[in-house]
Amino acid sequence: MIADVRAMIWKEFHELRQGGGRGKYAPFILVLIYGVFFPLQAGRSWVDSYQMVGFGLGVSVFMVLSVVADSIAGERERHTLETLLASRLTDRSILVGKISAVVLYGWGLTIASLIVGLIAVNLSAGNGHLLLYPAGRAITTVVLTFLLCVLATGVGVLVSLRSSTVRQAQQVLTIGWIALIFLAVFGVQLMSPSTRLRLEHRLSTAQLTTVVIVAVLVLVLLDVLVLAINAARFQRSRLILD
Amino acid sequence: MLEYAIQTDGLSRSFGAVHAVEDVSIQIPAGTIFGFLGPNGSGKTTTIRLLLGLLEPTRGSATVLGFDSRSQASDIRQRTGALLEHPGLYERLSAQENLEFYARVWNLTPAERDTRVKELLTHLGLWDRRGDQVGKWSRGMKQKLAVARAMLHRPSLIFLDEPTAGLDPVASAALREDLSSLVAREGVTVFLTTHNLPEAESICDLVGVIRQGRLLTVDSPAHIRTHGGEQKVEFVGQGFTPAVLDALRLRPEVADVAASNGTLTLALRDDRPVAPLVRLLVEGGCDIEEVRKGAASLEQAFLALMERDA
Known about the structure:
Radius of gyration of chain B: 24 Å
CATH class of the largest domain in chain B: Alpha Beta
CATH architecture of the largest domain in chain B: 3-Layer(aba) Sandwich
Number of domains of chain A: 1
Oligomer: heterodimer
Shape of chain A: globular
Number of domains of chain B: 2
Structural class of chain A: mainly alpha
Structural class of chain B: alpha/beta
Helix content of chain A: over 70%
Shape of chain B: elongated
Number of strands of chain B: 15
Order of helices and strands of chain B: EEEEHEEHEHHHEHEHEEHEHEEHEH
Strand content of chain B: 25-35%
Number of helices of chain A: 11
Distance between the termini of chain A: 25 Å
CATH superfamily of the largest domain in chain B: P-loop containing nucleotide triphosphate hydrolases
Distance between the termini of chain B: 40 Å
Number of helices of chain B: 11
Strand order of the largest sheet of chain B: 7-8-9-4-10-11
Order of helices and strands of chain A: HHHHHHHHHHH
Number of strands of chain A: 0
Largest interface: A-B, 26 and 33 residues
Largest sheet of chain A: none
């Protein structure tokens, strides 16, 4: 199975190298925007504050959503899925290969953006000193972005399997992601003052490590759930009939 | 070696109220080229999907290369190559990358991969264009590449859905030659669907005709030609009076009678002897100078089968 997954990843990366339908240089442009423009705007606080964690999480989801629809719905739209299903590859190895490629792409570009950001901040605001992300924060970002990439990919696969075209899948995913952000922002605004106070109190008194561990556990749980649904849904007999 | 590469018994598949494939029973000997003929939407592609185990039959069973399509589908796909309805090529990848991907899928070693990819691309005249993105290619070139992909891992059985669609006559002829030599050299079985009846006639050992999911006949092209279609006989001469023509129409073997400008054309049912008709004409006072007997082409036989079943 490992060789089969590797073959799938090889193919997906060769397609992504051509921009995954978004142009050959799309990955470099994305890294330049997220890894140079935003860190330069933030200056030294890019390294000192928690904004790079939030940024990393947001970017990782965006990176994943930009390619997952093309990988799944695109295979059907371009009539390559049936030939793939007629090969010796198992459903599981096709799915795992595709998910792995998208996660590695999204996560890799997010990490690359953060590294480029660090270099940009050092060049612009380093003043001769080497600025580094605090180790704990860097590890937290790496772990959380990975788990979030897996979750976003899993959701992307489910949406793409139900969409007839890449564009439709991309629209649903983008609108869904924006809606989720709005829901979080306005959800807090819409809370009763007492509930909001209780939440703020709980967060301010909670240990940061505890918050991170809870976030990791929740993400792991969601990842497992979404991947299990993916495995149940990604089956030859169903895909052919779709 | 297996006697039959494919055996189906009452194979059926329905989609709701639509019977896409109904009670299809065929036996395809190993090492032969089988042509599956039928109009659009007759169930050819569904049959291929059933044989590859991509769809489960509603009723009946299929054994492909000795494996049950329902429970051993992965064993079937392990040993078969397929060019389905669409070429199924990754258009952003180059020709070489497309083949390399499938070579990886079929677990070819890096050395085998390089040799086989070069061999196939060179053979099909695509080697010089190996680095081009496939999306920029013509339909015919894509089709050739898709055929190469189906043969890449030297499978025992190849399914080809309209393999020569979009190919120029030279490329079509070359592909037909390739298929014939592949069967002769390596004992590969080929299951192909085509609308090109002369093509089926020239390369297929066995032909199946399907219509609305039901198999109308399975036989050699020669047998289908002689038994499936009407045989035409032309008599050149004089004296084809209305009385003689009426006498001919009463004969059970005569399906149609037409006379004009000293030529009498008869359409005969099945492969019946012509001598009794010649005798009838002579006894009726006709002067016969020439008799031309022509067997129906596979195309005529196919159309006759379709008409008869309609």
